[in-house]
Amino acid sequence: MTNRTVETSSTKEEFATALLGRLHAMSRAYGVLSRENWTEVSIEELVTQEAAPFDPQRFSIAGPPVKLRPQQALSLGMVMHELTTNAAKYGALSKQGGKVDIGWSVRDQCLGLAWREIDGPPIVEPKHGGFGLSLVKGEIEYRLGGTAETFFDPTGLTVSISIPLDRKT
Question: Can you give the pTM of this predicted structure?
Fold first, then answer.
């Protein structure tokens, strides 16, 4: 994973910033898990802590109470970090007035999470997938056995995630 970040970074400083951001995201998720004695963690707490470095007024966060097992929490913490970082660099959080709507629901033991950027700059689908969205797909699909779909709508990025809650990870 790190090699791909090295290859796509313009400078050593950009690489260091990206790597440190990912390490801090892991650290925050580990912190929440430690406070809960490595049992279950609230999805709302994970999502809120990754949005915290940004203006809270720019986020709409809603969903029913859902508890995640440790691996689910670690993976989803990394995913939320990647999405907020990308939104700050290229998406809705990079522009004054841009917002992010994050919502989730549970149906048939499956967590559905929707990330939607609103009022950001116009976007186009990249010709080559970046490391961040590759990490999102990897964490959700391979580590958690779910699905992650990205939609590059000109009005903003939308990511639809589905994770089986009853799968042992």
Answer: 0.80
